[in-house]
Amino acid sequence: MTEQAQKPFLYVVVCAAGIAADVGRLISAAQERHWDVGVIATPVAMGGFFDTAAVEARTGRPVRSAWRTPADPRPFPPPDAVVVAPATFNTVNKWAAGIADTLALGTLCEAAGLDVPIAVLPCVAGALAAHPAYRDSLERLRGMGVRFGDAYTGEDRPDGGRPDFAWERALDLL
Ligand SMILES: Cc1cc2nc3c(=O)[nH]c(=O)nc-3n(C[C@H](O)[C@H](O)[C@H](O)COP(=O)(O)O)c2cc1C
């Protein structure tokens, strides 16, 4: 029997934005492109922003949010690439500032230092995106080689519809 080639491993970091409810679309698209996927969510995102059971069923792995204990084995292999989608104002600013007080942030800070490709789809309202700290954060992260999709505010259009969130763009950016 021939051994199956190991697929590259993608970390999907999920932050607490409303659009996170649709993260299954990103996971399916990544799997179609032959990524093996593990999800790391912020602690706030774990509080009802997406269906964790559905994501676990889809990826075949637990959703990670807390640090493992030193005695525990690493639950995921090291990443070949990382996608942050949706990325919140809070997480983008903390990441750029080098804060690592959640597993998601620690993973992002480390991945940048390991030269792992990172793609980010922000979901940040216009009023927050105008904050100078956010603009500085984007500049700093871009300077570290982090790739960003287009701005997305998460706000409804005048006709009541919501523009599509370009989930697959994250994969194109890698
Ligand atoms: C229903 C709801 C939707 C939210 N949507 C967004 C959003 O689209 N973008 C954003 O930056 N923050 C949003 N927030 C605020 C974040 O959840 C909040 O800043 C949180 O601290 C982010 O934590 P995290 O970055 O660790 O995930 C939303 C909050 C709620 C309650």
Automatic annotation (TrEMBL):
Coiled coil: none annotated. Signal peptide: none annotated. GO terms for molecular function: catalytic activity. Residues 11-141 form the Flavoprotein domain. Pfam families: Flavoprotein. This is Flavoprotein. It comes from Streptomyces yokosukanensis.
